[in-house]
Predict the 3D structure of the following.
Amino acid sequence: MESVDNVAVAANAAAIELCEIRNAQLREPIRIEVSRTLCDSYRKQISRLQKGGYSLTVPEVMQWKSTTKVSLIMAKQVNESVLEPTDADSAIGQVYTGEIAISRYMFAELVDRSNSFKITSNSPKVVDVEEDPTPSWEWNVSANKLGKHNITVRMGIQLTDARGNKSRYFPLERRTITVSPGFIQRGELFFQDLARVFVAPKEAIEELIALFGLLGALGVAYWAFRKDWRAPTRS
């Protein structure tokens, strides 16, 4: 009889059910369909969340096809000094700060849904806060398109199962920033394009052809204007 009861208990624990988790540190309750065992594990971890903070530095103006950096740092306390913007941060761009619930495993990722940027991460997606109490992330960002485009930083926690294995990601905060890639220092970029002919001929040559085509069109228009302006008038 005991073995039958144990089987029934195990079956109930493994059965998939709606798991709803509420906590003062969560803006919205978490609702997922998982086993009762996993739900209990998630609830225990969520109950240990503490209020922390983050500081996000994003350049609002980017130089077209030039690499800039986006950086993020978190701390277990909202008022920790590492979250205060420095002069160097302000010189790079806009600094955004806010509160976020802190768990043992924190994650962050930079997302571009318009394919307007080339993004390369310089940091692991997930950081163990017990090993690094002020986790930080950094991304290299290069604009591929001109105009205003959005990039989004997703931040949150990664919970573990009952055995301590890393499990699901739960986003807690999203910051969407509008940046404006432009023709800043276009003269410098021209010579950079010229130098890249010897490194990446096909791509660089296509850019140079387009640039020379534009310059040629402007030259034709200019000489046509001069010719009309200097032509004698008939009485």
